[in-house]
């Protein structure tokens, strides 16, 4: 019997320059099987190549808590990508 894949639906929020690059403040996407925050960012970087330039300085959160890039996603999660902040 083949393994059953599970669909994971997550809400994605973009802030600052990332919002400008994607043209939206939020989106929703689905994965089949488990994914990570890194894979989610890569998905959006494939759609919006300019995002890739910001990868090294972007901070991610899952469900309003800072998270590492290898954090696994679960259905219903809210992921936010936050660009670097400048100013004083």
Please describe the topology of this protein.
Blueprint: E1 7-14, H1 16-22, E2 26-32, H2 37-47, E3 59-62, E4 65-67, E5 78-82
Parallel strand pairs: 1-5
Antiparallel strand pairs: 1-2, 3-4, 3-5
Short note summarizing the structure:
The chain has helices at 16-22, 37-47; strands at residues 7-14, 26-32, 59-62, 65-67, 78-82. The protein is of the alpha+beta class. Strand 3 (59-62) and strand 4 form a beta hairpin.
How would you describe this protein?
The chain has 88 residues and is α+β, with helices and mostly antiparallel strands. The chain contains two helices and five strands. It has a five-stranded mixed sheet. The mean pLDDT is 90.
Count the DSSP helices: 2
Arithmetic mean of pLDDT: 90
Runs in which pLDDT lies below 50 for 5 or more consecutive residues are none
The helix-strand sequence is EHEHEEE
Q: Quaternary status of these chains?
A: single chain
Structural class: alpha+beta
Major beta sheet, specifics? 5 strands, mixed
Radius of gyration: 13 Å
Fraction in beta strands: 25-35%
- The count of strands amounts to 5
Distance between the termini: 59 Å
Order of strands in the sheet with most strands: 2-1-5-3-4
Secondary structure: helix percent: 10-25%
Shape: globular
Which key features would you list for this structure?
88 residues; alpha+beta; five-stranded mixed β-sheet; 5 strands; 31% strand
């Amino acid at each position: 019997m083949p393994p059953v894949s599970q669909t994971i639906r997550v809400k994605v929020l973009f802030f600052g320059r990332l919002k400008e690059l994607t043209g939206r403040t939020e989106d929703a996407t689905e994965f089949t099987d488990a994914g990570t925050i890194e894979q989610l960012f890569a998905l959006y970087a494939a759609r919006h190549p300019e995002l890739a330039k910001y990868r090294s300085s972007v901070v991610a959160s899952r469900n309003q808590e800072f998270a590492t890039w290898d954090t696994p996603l679960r259905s219903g999660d809210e992921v936010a990508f936050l660009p670097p902040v400048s100013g004083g």
